[in-house]
Amino acid sequence: MQFSFKYYLCAIGTTNVAVGIHTVIYPWIIVGILEGSPSQLGFAQMILLIPNLLFILPAGVISDRLHQGSWLALLYLLYLFPLGFMLFAEVSNKLNIELVIGFGLVFGTITAFAQPARESLLGHSKTKAMHQLVAKTLVVRFIALGFGFLCAGALGNLSLSSLVCLQMSFFAVTAILIRLSQPTQIESTSQARKSRNLYLELVEGMTLFRDDKRLLHLLYIVFATGILPFGAFIVATPILAHQIYHGGAGLLASIQMVFILGVVAANIGVMRKVDTFSNPGRSMIVTFFWRGVLLLVVAWHPSFWLLFPAVFFWGLSSGLAMALGRTIIHDNVALAFRARAVSMYQLSLFGGTPLGAWLCGIAIENFDFRLSLSSIAILTAVLAILAARRSPLWVLTPSTLVNGSLKSS
Fold it and tell me: What single DSSP character describes residue 336?
């Protein structure tokens, strides 16, 4: 039996409904229910993402070795344990910031292992237009995230325990769909591969990026995205909704929804694109620049008529960057190395994000919301201009591809 993209796409949808709920209620529990400070929120977001630094590289090696359908299904079932613990704490009135941060650590650890396995599983699709499949998964992912945001935005009408139960249900369904997407008859690796040294395989994955400067600079851009605009976004939006606009979880969910609409719009455009990107590296740098400009608009907490369009176009830039980065990886790394390459890519993003979130929270608490975000925005734009002038990623085109991997200059 062959890999089923249909079941895979359904699994992307169900898991991201659960993740969308998590994205809203996790920070909202900190700032909206437990009345935590900006630095506590930044620390909590950092703890959620720290496991990516520790585990995502070995997770990529493990995913390349194991049958990814069985392994990924197991990981989705493991989400039920931290969520069950959160549910118990909520119904017994024992919820506190320390417990929520501990929950974030376990949740983030499972996610660190799930991400490379999920991304590599897509590589079993038989297609010459990988950018279209990537765009389809991103569209489904973010529509599902948006639905999750809407569910979480109903916090107040729905209890926190009800939302946690809903998350658990979606993760359980995801595990079933993943198993259906890749039956056990498909072998993910050879016995000889399984007997190889894990450290050597990890080094092989790193070598892919060491030997090609354009791929290496892709990691640089992704790392800068994590430490600057993305790190600021996940801390600033809950504070913006709660402390600047004095709204509730519904306002935070609305801001997230508008961002999602931008991401979906970008990837619908990519889905309709027949040919691959002509200058994917250049487009990555341009989207990085625009996120800096849009963050500067958000930093001055404008009226809603300007805030929501800025967030929409921020989502548009982010959605295009997601499609560009993942397409470059899928098109230029052999399937046998795909999970390790994805883990390096994810490490670059989530390597910067925890530090960026923590520093952004500290800056807002000790200085000023407007000054902190404006500084991050200006630095983002300046780095993008430098990358346009100096980075070999700027000249990356399909004509530089040789035998499925990037040819170094």
Answer: G
Tens of pLDDT, residue by residue over 142-175, are 899 889 988 988 877 888 999 999 999 999 999 9
Q: CA 144 to CA 407: how far, in whole Å? A: 37
> Is the residue at 191 inside a domain?
no
Type and span of the H or E element at 208: helix 198-210
Is the pLDDT at 194 greater than 70? The verdict is no
Domain range enclosing 173: 5-183+198-406
- 3 state SS of 20: helix
329 touches 342 (CB < 8 A):
yes
Alpha-carbon span 346 to 354, nearest angstrom: 13
In angstroms, the CA 123 to CA 158 distance is 39
Amino acid at 116: P
Q: Which long-range contacts (CB under 8 A, 24 or more apart) does 179-183 make?
A: 179/69, 179/70, 179/73, 180/4, 180/7, 181/3, 181/4, 181/5, 181/6, 181/7, 181/8, 181/11, 181/69, 181/121, 182/3, 182/4, 182/8, 182/67, 182/68, 182/69, 182/121, 182/124, 183/1, 183/69
Q: What is the DSSP string of 162-206?
A: HHHHHHHHHHHHHHHHHHHHS-TTS--S-HHHHTS-HHHHHHHHH
- The type of residue at 89 is A
Eight-class DSSP state of 158: B
What is the tally of structural domains in the chain? 1
Cβ proximity of 184 and 70 under 8 Å: yes
| pTM of the entire predicted model | 0.74
Radius of gyration of the chain (CA): 20
Inside any domain, residue 27? yes
Token code pair at residue 251: 């306002």
CATH number assigned to the domain comprising residue 172 = 1.20.1250.20
Q: Is 405 helix (H, G, I), strand (E, B) or coil?
A: strand
CA-to-CA dists, residue 97 to 61, 185, 225, 270, 363, angstroms:
34, 45, 28, 41, 20
Query: What is the separation, in whole angstroms, between the first and last Cα of the chain?
Result: 41
Alpha helices in 29-79 (DSSP H): 38-65, 68-78
Angle at 170 between CA 168 and CA 174, to 5 degrees: 115
pLDDT tens column, 277-319:
778 889 999 999 999 999 999 999 899 999 999 999 999 999 9
Q: Using alpha carbons only, what angle is made at residue 154 by residues 114 and 142, rounded to the nearest 5 degrees?
A: 40
> For residues 104 and 48, is the Cβ–Cβ distance under 8 A?
yes
Q: Is residue 188 part of a domain?
A: no
Tokens of 335: 């399937």
Two structure tokens written together for 409: 């200059």
